[in-house]
Amino acid sequence: MIDYRSDTVTKPTKGMLDAMFSAKVGDDVFGEDETVNTLERKLADMFGMEDAMFCPSGTMSNQIAIKCFTQPLDEVITDQTSHVYKYEGGGIMFNSGASVKLLNGERGIITTSLIESEINPTDFHYPKSSLVVIENTVNRGGGACYKLDDIEPIYHLCKLKNLKLHLDGARIFNALQTTKDEAIDYGQYFDGISVCLSKGLGAPVGSVFLASKKTINYARRVRKVFGGGMRQAGFLAAAGIYALENNIERLKQDHLHAEVIAESLQKLSFVKNIMPVETNIVIMELNEQKNIDEFVNELKEQGILCGTFGKQMVRFVTHLDINSKDVDFTLNAINKFEH
Ligand SMILES: *Cc1c(COP(=O)(O)O)cnc(C)c1O
């Protein structure tokens, strides 16, 4: 099967497995796993942040960030499509006791004017606006990217209004590949950044939360409470280090693959709309004449898996385990549909 359902389906390569098996480990709850420490140092330095903490999942990284940056009765401002709101099981309310103000961004990209109009006045009738969360790339926005130039004014607004700013950077390396911004320039703008190792980078597990030393100290308490303190986690961190050293540059291949797949899909008579492809995600809408389950099944019969993504919406995600031959096979399969 050629699996486009998500970039989380990748399996570790031989090189990555070798790195994992030969990792030097210790008890990370005691702070004694040197491979975890190396991964944390490496990512903090890459993004110009003071400190970092390895987490089992991107969801946990984000939820810990939100816990660190809010108090109960506060409000988080984010786009309506954002992962922290839509795909983390309502965790913001459960873990942090905070409410959420949803914005209607353009493909999930929010701006200072959208944010500013939803910052509550200082008045005890309202929840206290205390945190803005943005996503880069935006998953539901078809992998849309913020440039640093888009982020800078958001940073200034947050500073002015005394809000924290968190980046859900599950696919930040895809964004950097497209925007040509530098990771090192990100740190100055954010109070927190979460980076996923198990998406496009191809590690089996893991995410890292980046922030100030003070925030990370508190975040370690929160991670413990969430049950995310891991022992010999260096075996997993080694996969992350390997991914950072070997799998960033190649993301452009995934982006190229997404682009040609989108071009081919565009020609199908029953495709109503395809979101512009900026990174490794293709989201398209089928017109009413085409039954979406039928379409997904027809591809599946040819050995190709894609995901449904809401009413008449289909998502393809390219990744490390899809090579050019797989893409050629896919283009052929798409061409077999009536045009
Ligand atoms: C995948 C993803 C996450 C984290 O997901 P986990 O499955 O918990 O690792 C967070 N944000 C976005 C935008 C994602 O796509």
TrEMBL record:
Superkingdom in the source lineage: Bacteria
Cofactor: pyridoxal 5'-phosphate
Keywords: Pyridoxal phosphate
Domain Aromatic amino acid beta-eliminating lyase/threonine aldolase: 3-287
Family of the protein in this entry: Belongs to the threonine aldolase family.
NCBIfam families (alphabetical): GntG_guanitoxin
Protein name: Threonine aldolase family protein
